[in-house]
Sequence to fold (249 residues):
Amino acid sequence: MKTMRLMRTVVLAVVMLGMGTAFAGAEEAKGEASADVTWMSNYIWRGLRLSDKSVVQPSAGITYEGVSFGLWSNYDADIHEGNETDLTLSYGRAVGPVNVEAGFIYYALDGLADTQEIYLGLGMDVLLSPSVTLYYDYNEGSGAFMEVGVSHSIALPKDMSLDLGALAGINFNNEVMGRDKDGDDFSDFYNGDINASLSIPVGPLTVAPKVGYAFALSDDAKDVFKAADMTGEEKSAYAYGGLSVSMSF
Fold:
């Protein structure tokens, strides 16, 4: 059953890419399709370590006139099963130096109740590219989550680049993000993350090794991180790494 679910995900990704190829060919200046396969040492989501071992995360997307549709999956190498498929629909446009994006995410989870979020993100084309994104889970979470980040890209020879990033997350009574010691939802600083990746063009592909460090930003978050840590180590801070191979057309 779960194997079939993963196969359906892969088939849908291939169909999306096929559509995107024809689409981009017909509207070269307006449409774009992309595909990505990422291997990660662990599944890290908003600082939480949600797998015991490595994961493979394929994704595919199509963008046309600012409207994007994306499909993302997580395949857990420890249990040899796909256990999550996310669908994203969004619209983005530039308003002067500000990039605005609004969207919807559907989280299809194996063994847990599915949930849904809407979000609004703002990014600035200025020094350190500051950004802020507010997510609202109107389903299982009944609360919000905010991410504030900065990033910087350093050009290297042969069209390579070193991409640096840092972000902080804040929880606003979002039950999906866990509960405090008393069993209540909470509002507090949540996660921090610093990361670096190297973008290497290889023919039509881009290969990007990545390293990062995730950590809790509050006592409430530390309790959640330790309880949710799928490795059994019950840590609230950990290093991670991975490698992605992507292409767009």
Observations:
- Residues 2-26 form the longest helix (25 residues).
- The chain has one domain: 2-248.
- Residues 1-28 have pLDDT under 50 and may be disordered.
